[in-house]
Amino acid sequence: MRAPAKTLAGGEQNGYLVPMDTLNLDTGGLIDLETEAERLARVAWEADKIAEARDDVAAGRLVASAKVKAWIDSIGTDNELSVPYSGR
């Protein structure tokens, strides 16, 4: 099923969902949203962040998911919790 040309909803291509505003209905392909230089810079930035995250895990700098969920659920309530930190 193809999305109408001016839809703000997501579309489907080859059985896969694609985010809104990226479906090129003329060719059925995805619109290039970044240049090759921008893509390389983004990939390098992502690799740096992944390496930082792995170092954090190896050093035990973690926050329990239950604490994060409780904090998120408290946002906007009368008993809002402070941001949880690992303590390391």
Give a written overview of the molecule.
The protein is built from 2 helices and 2 strands, in the order ββαα. By secondary structure, the protein is mainly α. It folds into 2 domains: 1-31, no CATH class; 34-88, no CATH class. Strands 1-2 form a two-stranded antiparallel ribbon. The longest helix has 23 residues, at 36-58. The protein is extended and about 45 Å long. Residues 1-9 have low confidence and may be disordered.
Mean pLDDT: 79
Global morphology: extended
Bin the strand percentage: 5-15%
Terminus-to-terminus distance: 51 Å
Task: Please tell me the total number of domains.
Answer: 2
How many β-strand stretches?
A: 2
Number of helices: 2
Rg on CA atoms, Å:
20 Å
Compact summary:
By secondary structure, the chain is mostly helical.
Key attributes of the depicted protein:
88 residues; mainly alpha; 2 helices; 2 strands; extended; disordered N terminus
Question: Would you spell out the secondary-structure blueprint of this structure?
Answer:
Layout: E1 11-13, E2 16-18, H1 36-58, H2 65-74
Antiparallel strand pairs: 1-2
